Recover the amino acids of this structure.
């Protein structure tokens, strides 16, 4: 248990569906992250939020839309996805964004399958 | 940009020692992390190096050479539960101090 929870753990959706992934951290952190983990590829950073403000959008397609209502919650809204978007989506948090020692704590991920 | 390389797979015997290497190229190195990830679970933090040398933490040690762009994770007295993927990640201050990950090394421990 890392203090970061994600729901749902598994999600199957069609290309025309709209769904949302949820992440919650119970660590009092100020920075939150979305990563995509595909088979045989490195973890890819998608979005970074610091104190609820988006500080990084790593050229992610607009069919992925993040939302950070407060420092403890992070959402990833999905719509009109493609089969190649099937992957494990990991959420992480860290105490601060720019500190020299900035360990990130990861949630267990949502396994997404797009049909 | 960032380039991080590590072997895709390794196999080692229970009770033995295994070394997982990671080489990297970044323009603004600001620390290197090792994470462990069991299948279907969250990556969990193992170690952090920012200065050259060896950091020891129980059965696990991590080494860094900044001049060579090289790190390794050393696992001693291997146990079956050590079977997992080991992720090398580099913080790059030119990349807003974000982490950039390698593809991970899948370690299988056999009896």
């Amino acid at each position: 248990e890392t203090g970061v929870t994600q729901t749902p753990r598994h999600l199957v959706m069609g290309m025309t569906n709209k769904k949302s992934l949820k992440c919650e951290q119970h660590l009092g952190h100020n920075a939150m992250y979305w990563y995509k983990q595909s088979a045989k590829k490195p973890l890819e950073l998608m979005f970074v939020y610091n104190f609820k403000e988006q500080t990084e959008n790593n050229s992610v397609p607009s069919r992925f839309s993040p939302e950070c209502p407060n420092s403890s919650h992070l959402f990833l809204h999905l719509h009109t996805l493609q089969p190649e978007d099937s992957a494990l989506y990991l959420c992480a948090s860290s105490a601060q964004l720019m500190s020299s020692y900035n360990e990130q704590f990861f949630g267990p991920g949502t396994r997404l399958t797009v049909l | 940009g960032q380039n991080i390389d590590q072997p895709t797979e390794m196999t080692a015997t229970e009770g033995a020692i295994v070394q997982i290497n990671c080489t990297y190229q970044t323009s603004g190195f600001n620390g290197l992390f090792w994470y462990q990830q069991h299948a279907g679970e969250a990556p969990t933090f193992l170690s952090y190096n920012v200065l050259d040398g060896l950091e020891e933490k129980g059965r696990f040690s991590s080494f860094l050479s900044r001049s060579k762009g090289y790190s390794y994770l050393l696992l001693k007295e291997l146990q079956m539960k050590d079977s997992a993927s080991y992720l090398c990640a580099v913080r790059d201050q030119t990349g807003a101090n974000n982490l950039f990950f390698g593809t991970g090394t899948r370690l299988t421990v056999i009896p």
